[in-house]
Amino acid sequence: MHEFSIAASLVEKLSEFVRENPDKRICEVRLEIGELSHIEHDQLHFCYESITKETPLEGSSLKIDKVEAFVECPHCSYRGRPKYWDDILAGAPVVTFQCPSCGKTVGETQGKECAIKSVKFSQIQPVPS
Ligand SMILES: [Zn+2]
Question: Is residue 36 part of a domain?
């Protein structure tokens, strides 16, 4: 599963941070995910929650910022949003790589992102001895 491996490597990176900073607790992780990356946000949320269960990351919230796709046509110099193919059965618009202006194949300039944008953490109060 695509989403599971993304969540797993994300949790791995965050766990590393937690190990190096034992006095900090991660409360929120914000990701930037491109429209063309074909990542199901709900699936990713679900995987993240199940992987972080009973770990120091449990209870941290995952926020996803969607990055809209942009394409560029090498044939007619169209730049902008891609053309969508409305798939009635899927219920969601599907991005196509057909130029909205001339019908030839476009290249993407933005929309394949999958990166950590920011991490919010709080300081754990040391227990007085
Ligand atoms: Zn074109």
Answer: yes
**pTM higher than 0.85:** no
Distance 109 CA to ligand 1 centre (A): 14
Residue 34 Cα to ligand 1 midpoint, Å, equals 22
* 14 Cα–ligand 1 center, Å: 42
| Euclidean distance between CA atoms 22 and 120, whole angstroms | 15
CATH for 58: 3.30.2320.80
Which domain does 29 fall in, by range? Answer: 2-123
Give the mean model confidence (pLDDT) for residues 64-76.
95
User: Is 128 domain-assigned?
Assistant: no
